[in-house]
Write a structure and sequence with these properties.
The chain has 674 residues and is of the alpha+beta class. Helices cover 43% and strands 22% of the residues. The strands form five sheets. Strands 11, 12, 13, 14, 15, 16, 17 and 18 form an eight-stranded mixed sheet that branches. A five-stranded mixed sheet has the order 19-21-20-22-23, with helices on one face.
Length: 674
């Protein structure tokens, strides 16, 4: 893939002059990255060095590339035309940024940057000699969707002189130099084992290191898109990641980022490197605890609690048969845990294949929403008594094969519909699961399932809790019908979600399919009252109904207004411009299928006191709607260490983002501007 991208970009740059002329037809000749060749002094002194620079300014949403662009792209190429006595050294790039697009890691610059070079004037150049310098520079300008080869003929007119540097130019070049990687004081060591690369980098324990990332100067050292685990051990930084292809033994050079466009140039040689265990293990254990607690809290969701209540009634009906109760609980828990593992494994597999997806990706597909709508409708009518289904019925076959199968599939359903929201404790856990090693990631997904299954497991394995359940009786039938109400509301919510994703026609289609399914279930219930069968026929008809409805779903989402009620849609370039202008910004990410998100919006964000406080303080409210898959939002969430919604960020003027709690109150928001 890397060879293909380089070949393609090389072909594009070969025809850059033609592309530049074509750009005049489509873009009025205005480049997406403006370039200017400038010198720190226009009167360089013979026998001394001077500095020149390419001042590069990308348009909003566009980026240029570092000298090693990563998985795709190309750095800048130059061809100098120099007068006698003048030499120019290699280009010196500032510390780059990372940009992950469709699973490909890019080393880029998304804002203005300067590429520097050393100009040397021979001692025998006479003072006053004119020094015209021209260069043909070619570079690649890209967004997250398109790339355009660009180039320019640039010229500098210098005169040999006394080397005087104007203060304004010195300040400008000092700013660029501050972003160049500085030489590291000592040598780093690296070791390779089982496809993993470990580096030990000398770095003082008291020195600040934020947003650490290793940028190899040449291919082979690392797989660029692989997560990099970083920990500190005394006066060393330890980095572990996947080794690249074709790594040859010997010294390797890289740039170590330790802050915003701040870093060090290092040389790493083969040697002994301690394994990185403690930091990863600690992170995994914290994330596992968050996943278990988060799963436990998901039990209070309206689509889960009715089923949990029904399972509790089955325990009451089972009496004191511990063997029956525990088998039922294990089957239910196994269904939940295996579903969480399957969803987590599928998520990791899609991301490894280059898809920009996050937690709850399944509810971004309207076909799955439609299937859930019909399934929840069927369960709700079953609880209401319209027909009998052994998997969810009164529990007469609790100890038999049907009861175990019903418990297992109940767990599958619970996990599938409950996991999309990222509630308290889950946000950081799911984010960590995307960057930890595979075994740790799967353990976190299993922990989420364990937390979700925990209430029923406790009831099954602690008889003291179960003895407090009411005795079986006629009340159970009434409670079962009451429990159908939240599920009917859940079905209505799914129909509304279909409308949000694909418009009113999709919502109408979903409600129509649910009505037809209800008629089929009514027919089945009437036959069951007569002692007849018909379940197989209804199952086949329901599957055909689902298949036909899926084919009729609209293929496009409805148009979204650019700005609604004073809120603006998420745009990373616009966010950057607002922050550069020192404007306060409240940015939140939501989705129509996220119950926690909607609860926070109703209880805190959409309140009159919050709007009044934000309006008075001039706060810009920016919304990232993740109801449908959006790679730009997915990448931003990943950059914040999250894999799902909700996420609430507060940008005070001139300060970094503050991550707010996942449960908001009006006081929490108004306090930000008080």
């Amino acid at each position: 893939m890397r060879i293909f991208h380089v070949f393609l970009m090389t072909v594009l740059l070969t025809f850059a002059p033609v592309a530049a002329r074509a750009q005049g037809a489509f873009g009025q000749g205005v480049p997406h990255i403006a370039a200017e060749l400038t010198a720190e002094t226009t009167v360089p002194q013979p026998g001394r060095d001077a500095t020149i620079a390419f001042s590069m300014t990308p348009e909003a949403g566009w980026h240029g590339y570092w000298e090693n662009p990563g998985d795709a792209g190309l750095g800048m190429t130059v061809k100098w035309t120099l007068p006698k006595g003048v030499t120019i050294g290699a280009l010196r790039y500032p510390v780059p940024e990372t940009l992950l697009i469709s699973g490909l890691m890019n080393h880029v610059y998304e804002g203005p940057y300067g590429v520097l070079a050393k100009l040397t004037l021979a001692p025998d150049v006479a003072a006053g000699t004119k020094l015209p310098i021209t260069v043909r520079a070619d570079w690649l300008a890209c967004t997250d969707k398109v790339c355009v080869p660009e180039g320019a003929e640039l010229r500098l007119d210098l005169t040999a002189g006394d080397g005087t540097i104007p203060p304004s130019r010195r300040a400008q070049f000092d700013g660029w130099r501050s972003h160049l990687p500085r030489p590291l004081g000592g040598e780093a060591r690296y070791a390779v084992a089982d496809g993993r690369l470990r580096l030990a980098i000398p770095f003082p324990a008291g020195a600040d290191a934020r947003d650490v990332h290793l940028f190899p100067l040449a291919d082979g050292l690392t797989r660029y898109a692989a997560p990099q685990a970083v920990s500190r051990q005394g006066d060393r930084l330890l980095i572990e990641t996947e080794v690249g292809q074709g790594l040859k033994p010997g010294p390797m050079q890289a740039v170590l980022r330790t802050g915003d466009h701040v870093g060090f140039l290092l040389t790493a040689r083969p040697g002994e490197v301690p394994a990185i265990r403690s930091g990863t293990l600690r992170t995994a254990l914290i994330a596992l605890g968050g996943a278990v607690l988060g799963g436990l809290l998901l039990n209070i969701m309206p689509c889960v609690f009715p089923i949990l209540g029904l399972k509790a009634m089955k325990l009451a009906k089972a009496g004191g048969d511990e063997h029956v109760v525990r088998r039922e609980a294990l089957a239910y828990g196994l269904g939940i845990v295996l579903t969480c593992l399957a969803l987590g494994g599928l998520l990791l597999g899609l991301r490894a294949a280059g898809a920009a997806v996050g937690w709850a990706f399944q509810l971004q597909d309207p076909r799955i929403i439609l299937g859930l709508l019909l399934l929840v409708t069927a369960i709700a009518f079953n609880l209401a008594g319209l027909f009998e289904l052994s998997a969810y019925g009164g529990g007469g076959k609790l100890a038999g094969k049907g009861g175990l199968a019903g418990a297992f599939w109940t767990g599958v359903l619970v996990a599938f519909v409950a996991t999309p929201c990222t509630g308290p404790f889950m946000g950081a856990a799911m984010g960590a699961a995307l960057v930890l090693p595979l075994a740790a990631s799967l353990a976190i997904f299993a922990g989420l399932g364990l937390g979700l299954a925990l209430p029923f497991l406790l009831l099954a394995y602690l008889p003291a809790l179960r003895t407090r359940l009411p005795k079986p009786g006629a009340w159970m039938g009434r409670v079962q019908k009451i429990l159908s109400v939240p599920l009917f509301l859940t079905a209505l919510g799914l129909a509304w979600l279909l409308g949000q994703q694909r418009g009113v026609p999709a919502m109408t289609l979903g409600l129509g399919a649910a009505l037809i399914l209800a008629l089929l279930l009514w027919w089945l219930g009437s036959r069951q009252h007569q002692g007849k069968r018909g379940g197989l026929l209804v199952t086949v008809a329901a599957l055909a109904l689902l298949g036909g409805s899926t084919m009729l779903l609209p293929t496009r989402a409805p148009a979204v207004a650019a700005e609604v009620e004073g809120r603006i849609p998420f745009d990373e370039a616009r966010l950057a411009s607002l922050r550069a202008a020192s404007k306060p910004v409240f940015l939140y990410f939501t989705a129509d299928w996220c119950l926690t998100c909607k609860a926070n919006e109703a209880a805190a964000i959409d309140r009159s006191e919050t709007r009044a406080a934000f309006d008075k303080a001039g706060v810009t409210v920016m919304v990232g709607d993740w109801t449908n898959a959006d790679p730009a939002i997915t990448r931003f969430l990943e950059g914040q260490g999250r894999s799902g919604v909700p996420l609430y960020l507060w940008y005070a003027p001139g300060k970094d983002a503050q991550t707010l709690p996942q449960i908001l109150t009006p006081a929490t928001l108004t306090a930000l501007v008080s």
